[in-house]
Amino acid sequence: MKVAILMLDGLNYCLAKRFKTLRQEEIGRVINNVTKIDRNLTTVIWSSFMTGKMPEVHGCTPDVHCRDARIKPGVKTILDYANKPIALWIPAINPHPSYWKKEITTLCVKGASGDREAREKFRTIILKTFQEQRETFLRKLNEEWDLIVAHFNIIDALGHVYRDLTKMLPYVVLVSKFVEEVKAKIDPKTWLLCVSDHGIEIRGKHMQDAFYSSNIKLGLVNPKVTDFFPLIVKKLKENV
After folding, report:
1. Is pTM beyond 0.90 here?
2. Any bridge partners for residue 8, and if so which?
3. Beta bridge partners of 149
4. pLDDT, tens digit, for every residue of 19-42?
C-alpha cells in the first residue's frame, strides 16, 4: 500500500477536529509518551514517530538543540521499509534549511514579546516557506513513490508568536485546504495520515494536544507517538 504522511507540527486536536478535511475517516488525540520536558519537543517526538523508538535509542534527546539533533546512524526509520521513499524536511533527518535559523528565530522571539514589525516579518517568511513547501509536495506527488512523508512547520511557528487558538484559525484553514489538494491528487487507495507532535504554545508551554487523522479506519484509541511506526511498516507491506 502507498502511504502519504503529512507531519503538521504544532496543530492542536481541538483545532483540527473543526475541519472536515482534517477529520477524515478517523481522528483522535496522540499521546506523547517519549518526553515530559517542554524543550526541543519537535526533534524528540518526530524522531520517535519515525523510528518507533524512545529518545535514548534514536539519540534525539531534549538536551540536544533542534538544529543539531540527528537520528543515530543505524537506527531504522519508516523510510528504510519503503522501496521508493520521498522524505521532505524531516526534523533530525533532513530538516528545512530555514528551520531554527538564528535570524528567523530572533524575529519569532521579538514577535512573541509584542514587536509588531518583527511579528509581521516572521509571519511573511513562514507563509512564504509554507507555500513553497506546498508547491514542492504537490509536485513530488507526481513522482514514483510508495512512501512520501513531509514536515510542515507553519502552525508551530506562527503559534509561537500568536499563542492564541482563535488567532491561529486562518492558518489552520490554509493547512486544511492543502490537505484537500493532496487528497485530490493521490489515489483513493493510498493511506493518508495527518499527524502532529503537540499543540501550540500557550503561556510559554506547548499544549499536549496532538492529533492524528486517517482516511482509513484504524480503530485506534489515543495512540502513543511510537504506535504509528509498526502500523506504517505493516501498511507498506500490504498489497492493495
Report:
1. yes
2. 152
3. 5, 87
4. 999 999 999 999 999 988 676 788
